[in-house]
Amino acid sequence: MLKMIHTMLRVLDLDRSIAFYRNAFGLDVADRYEMEGFTLAYLRNAGNGFELELTTNRGREDPYPHGEGYGHLAFSTDDLEGEHERLTMAGVAPRDIKSLAYGGRPLARFFFVSDPDGYQIEVLERGGRYA
Amino acid sequence: MLKMIHTMLRVLDLDRSIAFYRNAFGLDVADRYEMEGFTLAYLRNAGNGFELELTTNRGREDPYPHGEGYGHLAFSTDDLEGEHERLTMAGVAPRDIKSLAYGGRPLARFFFVSDPDGYQIEVLERGGRYA
Questions:
Q1: pTM of whole model > 0.90?
Q2: CB distance B119–A50 less than 8 Å?
């Protein structure tokens, strides 16, 4: 069976990104590979084994244009307000908590935060369809 | 605990993308929401519950510029050659199987394929660090 195992993003400063994802989202570096010209790091989520792969190309100094296609990576949490406060205290500057309804019923409560390269991350309250 | 639950990509033709991800990767639509101005679909992977969220903005006709930041979404499989052949027969046109070594040892065997919007998908042979 085919199984989704990771998503890959290119970042400018790998150590900065690793520190961010550890502090903000509790991801640990499962493996790190120094290749010729680039470095790969796999950041693992204990919850389901899915990984965020970060790639740094050595010598790259200009930020990667993000385009409009890629949206975000989402995390779920049991304690949305608590995570929002924790991230605020950590200096990560989460945006306001919002909610989305569907057919007159609540569908989602969430906020967004930017990573050091400006990628968007959604934090969703666990419940309903968001497990 | 924070848990990675989905990644989101914007697509032009939702039905075309849903058909592609079903046929090529066995993802099923867990939920679909027709919102004002956009549609969301959550495509679920039975293996670990991680989801691919597809967003279609109604009225959007021009392809989304992809930029250079977002890399790919990866799947693992026990049968890399079999999947490559199956996707070839399905008309999905996977690229050649390649391998990557690290420290003189095999690290990964994989191929890439493009989805209907041109997003890159990696199919990795299960084994070693790629479970």
A1: yes
A2: no
